[in-house]
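Batch job 17 of 40 flagged for manual review because the log was empty.
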Amino acid sequence: MSGATAVGGISDSEHSAQLRKAVIAATVGTTIEWYDFFIYGTAAGLVFPKLFFPHESLLAGTLAAFSTYFIGFIGRPIGAAIFGHYGDRIGRKATLIATLLLMGIATFLVAFVPGYNRIGIWGAVLLTVLRTLQGIGVGGEWGGSVLIAMEWSRGHKRRGLVASWPQFGVPSGLFLANLAILAFSSWSGADFINWGWRAPFILSIVLVGIGLWIRLGILETPVFRQLLESNKIEKAPIAEVIRKQPREIILSALLRMAEQAPFYIFTAFIYAYATGTLKLSRDLVLAAVLVASCVSFITIPLSGHISDLIGRRKMYLIGAAATGIFGFLYFAMLGSGAPALVFIAIVLSLIPHDMMYGPQAALIAEAFTPRLRYSGASLGYQLASVIAGGPAPLIATALFAAYHTGYAVAIYIAACAVISLVSTALMPDYTGKDISAEYDATRSPGIAAAGSGE
């Protein structure tokens, strides 16, 4: 059947085609952005302590390198506020193009930052500035990518699956980042610290060009066009969402504790820990994280799909509980020092994370009314970067230095899981409800449109 949709007057087949384009654009774009973000994290664990902080001890250099890594997370809420404002004011598409450019150019320039032996501490200063710009770019990226996909999904039964595809960009970016660094690590050998690590940053500009070409070909979402047509664009969306839905913002940030903090321990701290403490080869760890990202290709969309069946909140609670328990198993396997067990631990590490990350996009985005959705979802999501993802490698490094056991880090992961369990239990769950009409913090999305199925 090729009847016109309620919004925009396009046929069902055209709508389906736009949904496919939107999902591809969101997924490819987030893949590129996360590639950029992850090559920095990998380099921070493997190269930056020696290159930019050569006169510090191994521990102090690692902490200093992860401090520049943390700066990117501070930039994320700033990016969420800036691009959330424009995403709710001028549209999802234009904002996504801007975030991709900012992130891509900043990443490309990291490749040309001289080390300490050439310009002293100014190398670390330049690195920090570019890392901040990276953070601002990725801070505005997530909300737009999720909405450009989710708001093209007319039905309610597959929204968790559709919204999980932009999340798919994380393991894709992680896979590409580790593949690039593994390839240039093997190629450059002993010269990896001199020039090999820079090549993946240079390659990022090619990916940015591909992402721009794809994103320029999509249309604005029907939900945002409906807001324009009904003149419901908010003048100050950030201020309004803080005033109207502060509870959802805070809960969105706190429920991410069990997802984001362990993730950056499993994908950033592990490089310094495995190569520095366990004395394992760099390529072994890179290969293990590479395989782990491949597993996430399945577990992220699968978890999003399951959330459509059993509910976002229930799926998320299962994932948070699994993460809290898995932390102890993870460090027990790492503590063995056996390369095979370490490899398996790393490969399995992202599965509990993915059980939350799959349904997370829909769980958070659905909680905010359409005219404030970009701002509210972005702000709540990215505030977690300051309290969870950013400090996680620093906290893990400090805990291990103080207690000389990975179980101290496992207790930290378990504490994050408890916070997420409580926060998720308090989060509204809009699985299966229509979210195109305006609603506020005290009223669920209208059921009047519930008859508009797939």
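Reviewer: the log was empty due to a logging misconfiguration, but the result itself is present. DSSP finds 19 helices and no strands in the chain. Unflagging and moving on to job 18.
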